[in-house]
TrEMBL record, chain A:
UniProt keyword list: FAD, Flavoprotein
InterPro entries: CO_DH_flav_C, CO_DH_flav_C_dom_sf, Diverse_Substr_Oxidored, FAD-bd_PCMH, FAD-bd_PCMH-like_sf, FAD-bd_PCMH_sub1, FAD-bd_PCMH_sub2, Mopterin_DH_FAD-bd
MF annotations from Gene Ontology: FAD binding; oxidoreductase activity
Name of the protein: Xanthine dehydrogenase YagS FAD-binding subunit
Domain FAD-binding PCMH-type: 1-219
TrEMBL record, chain B:
Any one Gene Ontology molecular-function term assigned to this protein's record: metal ion binding
Official protein name in the record: Xanthine dehydrogenase YagT iron-sulfur-binding subunit
Native source species: Rhizobium loti
Pfam families noted in UniProt: Fer2, Fer2_2
InterPro entries documented for this protein: 2Fe-2S-bd, 2Fe-2S-bd_dom_sf, 2Fe-2S_ferredoxin-like_sf, 2Fe-2S_ferredoxin-type, 2Fe2S_fd_BS, Aldehyde_Oxdr_Iron-Sulfur, Beta-grasp_dom_sf
PANTHER family, sorted: OXIDOREDUCTASE WITH IRON-SULFUR SUBUNIT, OXIDOREDUCTASE, IRON-SULPHUR BINDING SUBUNIT-RELATED-RELATED
Taxonomic lineage from the root: Bacteria, Pseudomonadati, Pseudomonadota, Alphaproteobacteria, Hyphomicrobiales
Amino acid sequence: MRDFSYLRAASVDAARQAAALPGAMLLAGGTTLIDLAKCGVAEPETLVDITHLKGLNGIEVSERSAIIGALAKMGHVADHADIKSRFPAVSEALWQAASAQIRNMATIGGNLMQRTRCPYFRDPANFPACNKREPGSGCSAIGGVTKGHAVLGTSDACIAMYPGDLAVALVAFDAVVHLGQSQVPVDDFFLLPGTTPDREHAIEPGEMITAIEIPGSASARRSTYLKIRDRQSYEFAAASAAVGIEFEADGRTIRDLRVALGGVATKPWRARAVEDALKGKVLEPDAVRAASLLAVEGATDHGANHYKIELAPRVVARAILKMGETA
Amino acid sequence: MTSLPITLTINGHRHELEVDPRVTLLDLLRERLDLTGTKKGCDRGQCGACTVLVDGKRINSCLALAVSHDGAQVLTIEGVAHGEELHPVQAAFIAHDGFQCGFCTPGQIMSTLGLIAEGQAGDDPERIREGLSGNICRCAAYGGIVEAVLEAQQQLAKADRRTAA
């Protein structure tokens, strides 16, 4: 690990100022950052430790929304009674993420800032070419082993998959990232790689996530997170879906539907085409399966990740039908 | 690099230390304090061999910077038994052959203590497997580990009932 200086922030403002300096990075749970520092990907000159700041780990849930402090731990949020009852997809996404140890360490704000698990990105010694690490150096994944790479939202510069679970549920329910005074919808917070894959988040030096706000809704209340993976636990998604549904009074006609995908795209992927195709329709298995194919419209594979294009619509369909059964 | 002063309470003993900010809690325990019961497996948060309790919660000490945990209460495998008397979780791992080579065992036991404190697993083997998925056993002693956790939970619940009565 490269030498760095350590600074314990005394306030949010002090943390922001310190983090604005060149080479400075914020330290929260550290589960991504320390890992990346060990593999030589993250080389901070200064670590600004925000874990001792008070008042940033609260969870407030009302009829209108849930506001989750940036320093709330993943495990604490997953187990929160009101999150479980009003936002089950959020709780389930967190329960199925990482391990119990990591959920006890990792914060909600840090979770949004986690980096891709692309093995080429994480191995600078053996793979110097990575546009995410070194803009303009090329992409080692394209033409490499691509089983875990994205099929949606890719570019010629980068096909790295967004690995998280929580943000998939957040993007389905129009959550907003609080950066102090300003707010950014989660969907806009995550950037497509395009020609600048080194830039993953709509956050500037000197800004800091202070909270995440999720609007309450009937579809959030009736929601689930379905994650399919190579092993049953402690594994990133092969494909996952956050789904929420609200029926009309007849209990069959879909009034509102939310669908987002994980494990297949370069960012948490809202599948509005699926939602639009089914809203106003009666929930019926064949229609759900047909509409779910729209989730991978425009997908392109790089060989070994082709299976994701077949898998993702099935995961979406299964999640929607599961939510329908509980009508 | 400037060393920074921190205070940690480890297995009930208070330590005032000067640490390089890059030192992980794991390396501090093993290299500075000779508490080598906590094992270094992957050193990347993937195997769970380094699991300890910090303020009662299980964490991967390999991903924790010691300096950031200034003021914390740390429990390692060395602090689990009461003198010569094994903790019920330790005794259950022996009774049920919850290990072969033993390298992952301190982490398995610390993770089990965390799991039981969280109260999530109950008597469901599937939930125990899920709750311990952050602890890899390359000898694959998982069958014995799950039996050990089930028995330890029963023993501890019995002890709780006696205390309550």
